[in-house]
């Protein structure tokens, strides 16, 4: 860590942070450019990077911030199960019993 207040040394610190964030698993598309933080231009991308880093924190024994990162939920179906799914009639998926939006009057009083 450079303690100098010179601009290029501070920007080196930001760049080192970004390299370490990528090493910890932050995807490249969730990082920011060094000038985004240094010139305070695109602070949204800086926040996205910090949130992404916080999601990775529990893997390293540090309390994270925000929602837990999703885990893969791979499902393997047999040919028999896939064929059985093709025999389901679409109305068995669920129905709204023919409900429509007819008769809805926005801004009008309800006449009883």
Automatic annotation (TrEMBL):
GO cellular component entries: actin cytoskeleton
Name of the molecule in the record: Transgelin
Family, similarity comment: Belongs to the calponin family.
InterPro entries hit by this protein: Calponin-like (IPR050606), Calponin_repeat (IPR000557), CH_dom (IPR001715), CH_dom_sf (IPR036872), SM22_calponin (IPR003096)
Highest rank taxon of the organism: Eukaryota
Species this protein is from: Ornithodoros brasiliensis (Mouro tick)
The Calponin-homology (CH) domain, residue ranges: 1-58
Record-level Gene Ontology MF annotations: actin filament binding
GO BP of this protein: actin filament organization
SUPFAM superfamilies: Calponin-homology domain, CH-domain (SSF47576)
UniProt-listed Pfam families: Calponin, CH
């Amino acid at each position: 860590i450079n303690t100098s207040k010179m601009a290029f040394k501070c920007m080196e610190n930001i760049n080192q942070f970004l390299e370490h964030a990528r090493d910890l698993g932050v995807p490249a598309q969730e990082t920011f450019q060094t000038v985004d933080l240094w010139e305070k231009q695109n602070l949204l991308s800086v926040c996205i990077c910090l949130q992404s880093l916080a999601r990775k924190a529990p893997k390293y024994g540090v309390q994270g911030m925000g929602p837990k990162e999703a885990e893969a939920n791979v499902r393997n179906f047999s040919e028999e199960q896939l064929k059985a799914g093709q025999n389901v009639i679409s109305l068995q998926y669920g129905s709204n019993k023919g409900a429509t939006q007819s008769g809805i009057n926005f801004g009008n009083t309800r006449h009883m």
